[in-house]
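Collaborator request, handled under Task 6.
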Amino acid sequence: MVLKIKAFGRSDVGQVRGRNEDTLAVEPSKGIVVVADGMGGAPAGDLASALAVQEVARGLHEGEGMKEALTRANRKILGTADAQPALSGMGTTITALRVFLEEERYVLGHVGDSRAYLLSGESFSQVSRDHTMVRDMVEAGKIPASAEREHPLGHILTRVLGTEESVELDLYEGPVQGGSCFLLCSDGLVKVMDDPEIETWMRRALSEPLEVLVDAMVGEGNERGAPDNITIAFLTLD
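Structure tokens returned to the collaborator:
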């Protein structure tokens, strides 16, 4: 049986930020979803995220490997900042998904604290790992996991795209099957919804129109105060 992909996403400024520094690309025909969140408060975070998504999406569309696409995006941001000193220091998170239907597998590339979740059968998990100081503290046993979401240092990233010549990339790969659902999002969603809530929305995505669901999630986030930009993208297989 041939699997079919459905995908849809939306980015929203939220209730507090003056501008949207998130960027999103969704290309269902190629199984591509890319989410990036420019560093808030840094020079040209919105430009950094836009450059990253543009470069990664184009590379994946042209058949480039995930590592190569992210590495080229990193160079693109650095080169742009070198040419325009006022942009020095700009950076972004990146979470990029490519699903290969014929091979029934996915590849995920990740830097920063945007997230990728996977729902497959009864299994729900966060595929990506947050590159934050607080996540390091949790894994080192210095603070409990329950304190992570509200920690005052939660915004401090340990890895981003575009600020160093060489960046350590997280690459994930695994099988996909009918009835699977991916959710990629910026951390603005995580600030207003916990994992059990996100899992519930993802289960709904298997049977409800994605456009309606995404709009409802963004609306819910805004009703809760949306202290940051919110970007949400679903990809489902049936």
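The cover message to the collaborator said: "Helices lie at 45-61, 66-83, 133-139, 187-190, 195-205, 210-223. The chain is about 30% helix and 25% strand. Please let us know whether this matches your experimental observations."
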